[in-house]
Design brief:
Length: about 230
């Protein structure tokens, strides 16, 4: 069954669009499960939590791309095997708020040139071939400038900088991550949508219309049919 990934920097509207898509597909008569990564409610996210809280270093680059990727990949594997593998096999549409693609955005940004390409090749082989995680049908990347996402994150935390993780605190890293995301999107065939206008976010409904229209272009009638 389909696996749809919504990707983007923090504050780009991933969770909102994933929730709106879940509701829309259910209205269309689909069986749907929405998943989100990291899975902070699972023990499998322990290493991710340690990494993001700065236990392994206060900067993202203090942990190399391959090690950090393994933390996130194991969390995804545990989620797949224990939570949603059977749903997917039984005809449920899966909507993922972040996925393997987040490693391609955030960890590949630690590398450049051939090293970055080698890493992206390794990442997809590691998660999809070696670990056996399902490949997404379509990845929609929500392209938001870091200064906009930073403003939204500040609002989310009500200005409390101590609540930010090591990714969110490092604006230079977020800039590199956005550039890397656009590179990965072109290399890996993601669909890029900009949910912004005039330096601010579009309304949630207008942004979702862009997302849903892209999915209609990809899935055609299958998206609206109430039988799979």
């Amino acid at each position: 069954m389909p696996l749809i990934v919504i990707e983007g920097l923090d504050g780009s509207g991933k969770a909102t669009n994933a929730a709106m898509l879940e509701q829309k597909l259910k209205q269309n008569g689909k069986k749907v499960r929405k998943i989100s990564f990291p899975d902070y409610n699972s023990d499998s996210s322990a290493l991710v939590k340690m990494y993001l809280s700065g236990k392994f270093g206060s900067k993202p680059d203090d942990v190399n791309a391959y090690a950090a990727s393994a933390f996130y990949a194991v969390d995804r594997y545990a989620s797949y095997k224990s939570v949603w593998q059977s749903d997917m096999q039984n005809g449920t549409w899966i909507i993922a708020d972040r996925y393997t693609t987040s490693n391609a955005v955030h960890q590949a940004s630690k590398l450049e040139g051939k090293a970055r390409d080698d890493y992206l090749d390794w990442l997809y082989d590691f998660e999809f071939t070696k670990l056996g995680l399902p490949r997404p049908d379509i990845v929609i990347y929500l392209d938001v400038f870091p200064e906009i996402s930073q403003r939204l994150i500040a609002g989310r935390y009500k200005g409390d900088q101590t609540k930010k993780d090591i990714h969110e605190k490092d604006t230079e890293y977020l800039e590199k991550s956005r550039k890397t995301a656009l590179y990965a999107a072109k290399k890996l065939g993601w669909q890029v949508i900009c949910p912004c206008s005039n330096g601010d976010m579009l309304s949630p409904q207008k942004a979702f219309e862009l997302v849903y229209n892209k999915l209609k272009d990809f899935y055609g009638d299958k998206l609206s049919q109430n039988n799979d």
